[in-house]
């Protein structure tokens, strides 16, 4: 699953799709652009989990006696890239036309973990997509704004 949250990597050359999406949409807002260009076709599906939720799962399972060595930790929140882009635009407060280019570069069509074992053992995701994106974006704004002394 794709983890996101404060302190993420927003470098467009090396980040994962979600922090790159936040940065691209923010840059459109700052530069007063009306068009957001993204690779692919917008239909590729991804699961997101907030970093604090993942940390919670790790702590939860540290002392838990379980039969498996590997556990999938996911939120179960799956949307396509276009839906994430629309949501981030709404949260950031910008209306953009989204154009998809390089439509053959879609990657794996779907990435959703089976987190049923984690749930069966008492852990449940607390990721609240809208609230957690807002937290992430506020932190992003602090990172890009030079501190004034």
Q: Biggest sheet, in brief?
A: 4 strands, mixed
**DSSP summary, beta strand count:** 6
Q: How far is the N terminus from the C terminus?
A: 39 Å
Element-level helix/strand string: EHEEHEHEEHH
The fraction of residues in strands falls at: 15-25%
Structural class: alpha/beta
Overall 3D geometry? globular
Please, how many helices? 5
**Uncertain segments:** none
**What value does the average pLDDT take?**
92
**Approximately how much helix is present in the residues?**
25-40%
Radius of gyration: 17 Å
Description:
The structure is a single chain. The protein has 5 helices and 6 strands, in the order E-H-E-E-H-E-H-E-E-H-H. The protein has helices at 17-30, 51-62, 81-92, 116-120, 129-144; strands at residues 2-4, 35-39, 45-50, 78-80, 97-101, 110-111. Helix 1 (17-30) packs across helix 3 (81-92) and helix 3 (81-92) packs across helix 5. The strands form 2 sheets. Strands 1, 3, 4 and 6 form a 4-stranded mixed sheet that branches. It has a two-stranded parallel sheet with strand order 2-5. It is α/β, with parallel strands linked by helices. It is globular, with a radius of gyration of 17 Å. The mean pLDDT is 92.
What is the structure about, briefly put?
The chain is 40% helix and 16% strand.
Can you give keywords for this protein?
149 residues, alpha/beta, 5 helices, globular
List the helices and strands and how they pair.
Elements: E1 2-4, H1 17-30, E2 35-39, E3 45-50, H2 51-62, E4 78-80, H3 81-92, E5 97-101, E6 110-111, H4 116-120, H5 129-144
Parallel strand pairs: 1-3, 2-5, 3-6
Antiparallel strand pairs: 3-4
Helix pairs in contact: 1-3, 3-5
